[in-house]
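Appendix B. Raw example, untouched.
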Amino acid sequence: MARKAQRVGAKRHRFRVADFSGEYSFRFQGFGRRLAPGKNAFHLIGIGRLTLDGAGHLTGGQVSTICPITGGMDGMDHGAFGSRRFDLVGTYSINSYGVGTVTIDFKFHGTVVNKDTFAVVATSNSGASFWLISTAPQTGGGAPVEELVSGEAIRLA
């Protein structure tokens, strides 16, 4: 007679948006390519801070740097090996399995210059950390951007 496998241990944690609140530090990196003619491929890397309010809203800031992969910096708006600071405003959601989305507007001097939606997954039962990947990068006007970014965020103690 076949025996059913039984799970030993605690019940599976059920995530809630409220599990994700507080101050987080994050880092990310990826690659992109400008869609306009003459705008080249680049490597993107950055760090930042987020405040999650436990109700699905976030604010924060980041510094990102780009570096050309080929063709120099022709058409790049950061300048050669340029860095920029962005203010971040957005929303987030999480399902009971710890998988969700984050949508962020990237503001430069008060103007939304980029937008992105990220797929996220919790990496701790307490909501203290999560991984993310970009899924819908756009310019501030809504045009698609060829970019792939991944990163992680960790709640500060």
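End of appendix B.
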